Amino acid sequence: MKESNPIEQLRNLCLNAKQFPAEVLDWIAVENLWSLWVPQKYGGLEFPFTAGLNKLKSLAKIDGSLGWTVTLCSGANFFIGNLHPVAIEEIFGKGQTQVCFGGSGGVFGSAEKQGDTYNISGKWHYATGASYLTHFTLNAKIIENGEALRNEDGSPMIRSFLLPKDKVEIVENWNTMGLKASVTHSFDVKEVIVDKKYSFLYNRVNLDYPIFKIPFSVFADLTLWVNYIGMAEHFLEEAGKLMAKERLIGLEAVLDAANGKVFDFAHAIEKSLQGQWVCNEDTIGQIHSEAVASVQHITKTILEYYPLLGVSASREDHQLNQIFRDYFTATQHHIFTK
């Protein structure tokens, strides 16, 4: 960053951007942020959990799209822990360029099992960072001999897959009011043959590193939660320029409580990573409930303050306006609308 204040430079570059400019993408690459959770052995930063959450929150405080995109894409790179060892070496081996996973959490297509390969077709929605990805992740129902396979409990059998970007067609349909630079487009896959080594399951881990002991649902809850907090902290910072800070103590208190809760959970999880047990079902449910309630409280508080900030906060070229649009676009993520 050329300016003495790189945070302000990043904010200015991201303001109302429909896609990150080269300077922002270059900065992400230099900082190696796509590989925040990837082990150092495979070229990643291998951040401890709490430190990683702090980093993601700081990025969201700089800009909503920046934090959101790095969170979702580094979160997809987290699947390195679930990949087949041969696939890991092929993709993250020495000499590889920047690796950036991303994709859809929905089940929008099918994968027909054909021996050691799968024939995949479908249209998947909401792939954050679509224009920046090197590989796309997707979930698909498994078909064999024309019939949908089922698990022992009768539910559809679903597996996750990893495809290089040249095997998918991006559908540029991300037309939301906020998080524009996250380019969360859809993508089409038409009869692409994928070897089984590029198939994986969320709950089956192949790399023996502490971070991969964290259940993915807990990882998703906490990494997204800090994004809402980071954007709200930016809102608080900018609002303090338009009204007396004493009037903002309500939002400040809500954010202090949110930070306390999320990092209490994170520290407890990090401590438990030294053993084999991390979270039982009750803890997983508690974390999700607390995260949803906290975000709802932040949302309600922002809505109470926004009408008091005047016309300036409604201008499209003002940071507060973008924060508002980014935050309320982010609240539509399915995890936090349940």
Automatic annotation (TrEMBL):
Where does the Acyl-CoA dehydrogenase C-terminal domain lie? Answer: 251-336
Sorted alphabetically, the keyword list is: Oxidoreductase
- InterPro entries linked to this entry: Acyl-CoA_DH_C, Acyl-CoA_Oxase/DH_mid-dom_sf, AcylCoA_DH/ox_N_sf, AcylCoA_DH/oxidase_NM_dom_sf
Provide the GO MF annotations for this entry.
flavin adenine dinucleotide binding; oxidoreductase activity, acting on the CH-CH group of donors
Q: Which residues form a coiled coil?
A: none
Write the protein's name. Acyl-CoA dehydrogenase, C-terminal domain
Species for this entry: Arenibacter nanhaiticus
